[in-house]
UniProtKB/TrEMBL annotation, chain A:
One of its GO terms (biological process) is L-phenylalanine catabolic process. PANTHER family: MALEYLACETOACETATE ISOMERASE. It comes from the Eukaryota. SUPFAM superfamilies: GST C-terminal domain-like, Thioredoxin-like. Residues 92-217 form the GST C-terminal domain. One of its GO terms (cellular component) is mitochondrion. This is Glutathione S-transferase rho. Residues 3-85 form the GST N-terminal domain. GO terms for molecular function: glutathione transferase activity; maleylacetoacetate isomerase activity. Transmembrane segments: none annotated.
TrEMBL record, chain B:
One of its GO terms (biological process) is glutathione metabolic process. One of its GO terms (molecular function) is glutathione transferase activity. GO terms for cellular component: mitochondrion. Residues 3-85 form the GST N-terminal domain. Signal peptide: none annotated. This is Glutathione S-transferase rho.
Amino acid sequence: MAKDMTLLWGSGSPPCWRIMIALEEKNLQGYNQKQLYFEKGEHKSKEVMEINPRGQLPAFKCGDKIINESCGVCFFLESKYKSQGTKLIPDCDAEQALMFQRVFEVNTFGDKMGNVIYYNWKVPEGERHDSAIKRNKEALTAEVKLWEGYLQKTSGGFLAGKNFSLADVIVFPAIAYLYRFGLSEERYPKLTEYYKNLMNRPSIKATWPPTWKETPGQDILKDI
Amino acid sequence: MAKLMSLLWGAGSPPCWRVMITLEEKKLQGYKRKLLSFEKGEHKSQEVLEVNPRGQLPAFKHGDIILNESCATCLYLENQFKSQGIKLIPDSADDQAAMYQHMMEGLALTDKLNSVIYYDCSVPEEERHDFAVKRNKEALTAELKLWEGYLENVAAGSYLAGAFSLADVIVFPSIACAFRFGLSVGRYPKLAKYYSLLKNRASIKTTWPPHWVASPQGYDILKDL
């Protein structure tokens, strides 16, 4: 049950947020949780390392089972709690396939976003190049356009069609991250419509990153 | 079934290999397939772009359904064909925990391997730095040591999540790549044991990269890791 689960998480981190959305959708509120702060290096603390030797968040335990990969946790929760809460894996073959496809596209999406937003954090000063910054921005722009296109082509309002699914659980936090960092609402109307629709979904509203409510966003992505 | 499936693939690519292993395990031989050449840029051809706008391989179709992310394809196939071939996802959710964890971690392993093996392909000459090469090698070494630890008790029938599962389908191809590119068997004995136990598994032997068979001598980029 929820009381056997523990989640160590950081505010705003899409992988952490995915798990929290999934737990809400499966009616698993009441899990043990602790918010940690990346800025204070708490993701490298002993408490985290004992669960996740990679020193990353999320770190998740269900009984004595440990899963630290957010997509892994989401699939695990849907499997174990199939019969409660929202059904997150569609029955229809085509929708199910599209759900799987979009879920695994999130990795490259997240990478490209990170390469722009966290360039200076990832790349030591002596190794930074304007040509790389430009290329990273172009890659992210192409990626965002791809997702805008996906939402144009898929009817139903959700990423896999007409039902909210694991694709939305897993990808929405990354899309929300784009807007937090200044993505233009006008330039990507379908993405914006999706973002605004889902931000009011109870599981998403309940788990909105607390630090996002307390502080303004940034505009690093305004030219994307 | 298999006749409605088609796969565009490239030799030696772990993501392509994962899909081919799964198709074998699920007894879906007989699917249409076409081998394309990365060196000739065929992954960016019109034929691929029509299935995969990202211009990447694998590009997989089942009737009208398109799946281009290898993990997505493997999960889809296991779900759709649960009752045939080998069971690749354990029945109980609790047994699935280790499988899902290692499956997803497998993607980090592949990334770190690529960042070393394909450094020169992905980084333009004027942006290359010795420090970055060193850092990538250190990250890959740490990653490989983690997997060496996961396989502490590896034995026949006892792999990444117990019985052979999607975790092994996803991860084995990258481990095989690591040895192809010179990883030391002596320094990573558990990984080497895992590799030698599984390389003769039917689905893996049948789908072994053809050019690796043709020229068994690999490279030595990873020999010092």
